[in-house]
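agent> fetching stored inputs for the alpha-D-glucopyranose docking request
agent> found them:
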Amino acid sequence: MASSRKLHVLFITSEVYPLCKTGGLGDVSAALPIALRELNIDVKLLLPGYPQVLAGVKYKSKVAEFNELQQFPSSTLLLARLSLNKSENIPVFVIDCPGLFNREGGPYMDTLGREWPDNALRFGLLSKIGAILSSDASPIAWHPHITHCNDWQSGLTPAYLHFYHGKKAATVMTIHNLAFQGIFPPGSVVQLGLPMDSFDMNGVEYYGNMSFLKAGLYYADHITTVSANYAHEIQKEPLGFGLQGLLSTRRNNLTGITNGIAINHWNPTTDSYLTKNYSSKKLSDKAANKHTLQQLMGLTIDANTPLFGVISRLNHQKGTDLLIQIAPQLIKIPAQLIVLGSDHAELEHQLSMLAQTYPEAIAVRIGFDEALSHLIEAGVDCFLMPSRFEPCGLNQMYSQRYGTPPIVHATGGLLDTVVDCTPTTLAEGSASGFLFEPVTANSLLDAIRRAVQTFHNKKTWQQLQKNGMAKDFSWNASAAAYQKIYSSLVR
Ligand code: ADP
Ligand code: GLC
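agent> prediction call returned; pasting tokens
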């Protein structure tokens, strides 16, 4: 659509670190655009104007107004800059619509954890403005060649564009987690200004309701997801969550691109949240972080007791129930456990009870704490991710980079990014953690025992740490893979 030679990409997202992050999407939305800009791609973000976004961006200027968009309230489009690190300052479009976005609470839920009742309208507006900016009806001069949608919140953009007959950008729909689909009652189709024809099995309909994500998967020119293995898993039950048929039909337009991580932000040699920085050449300095963490969390201070860490949404996907089941046995090994997270109230309560029962060995912090998450990555000996499914997962990569071998269920991106420790992989120099399967309490506990045995063999443990620290988790390869898809669509 755009005429300039440089590839223009509109990257639509509902969260971006550091302004608004509930999980990995926030991290990816900050790091991938930087990596793409390094490839000389002109990427601009489109974000909802939550209070923290309006307060956190710089140099805001008004570029358009939308007053009569179907049943959406009036909104103003701002162009601003977002500082992502010391040297990067990227352009973002922000939708200023106080009626939909200016409220206390999270991006998707209120302070009590209830979904906002008008989420269809909120993210319908994000999708709609995304579509307008991607078409020749756009009120602004910058036109994208590619519009890159992320998760259900921008899933309607490809649908709106499908029914627009002027010139328009090609669309890429990235699935970060198929479990969240943006499902709303059938009446939303008309409310959001989509033709009733689209409410069909071959369209936005999903078991009698409408699904934002399905709309994106059905109408986008290309689909990506965040690891190669997950791209296969979602074409079958149970991880297809009812969309396996559509995904396997579209398999020739479905690519798994494993996420990278922001290696400058997650860097144990410079991380300012750590008590002591360290590198693979001076791993002994890692111990100071363990000491601080044990002290801070009220655990017995002991360098020789293996310390396990978890940073996660606390829910069924992340296998929090398995962790709760094995915790009493884990501490008998002996070992210690630190958990940072929030989500499901009952699981939060059960974890807090464990910490009260075993205060010297188990510590639990309910909430979201970026600083503590860095200290945990550095201070624990081993990281636990018993996720039932995991599209990619970022913490297993952060932990390998921090010399903290992860124990992970062999699923999704965890399988793609962690190499199980065996005599063969140790000899090859590739071992970087521990994989387990099936996802049961017993097999998790077996993997933990295997890790503890290795932990007490100092030389092997250091080898494992160093292997993980030497791996390239940068965005370079992934950004190049996105570039290839963009280029194929423009041609
Ligand atoms: P998901 O997006 O499914 O939650 P990921 O592993 O992709 O899982 O990303 C989660 C991101 O959110 C990581 O950066 C992780 O460190 C962070 N995170 C999760 N829970 C917390 C928390 N309670 N405090 C701080 N960071 C957290
Ligand atoms: C989702 C997934 C997670 C992935 C993240 C970023 O939240 O649950 O596995 O790492 O998105 O793509």
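agent> quick read of the result: The domain at 8-260+475-490 is CATH 3.40.50.2000 (Rossmann fold).
agent> awaiting further instructions
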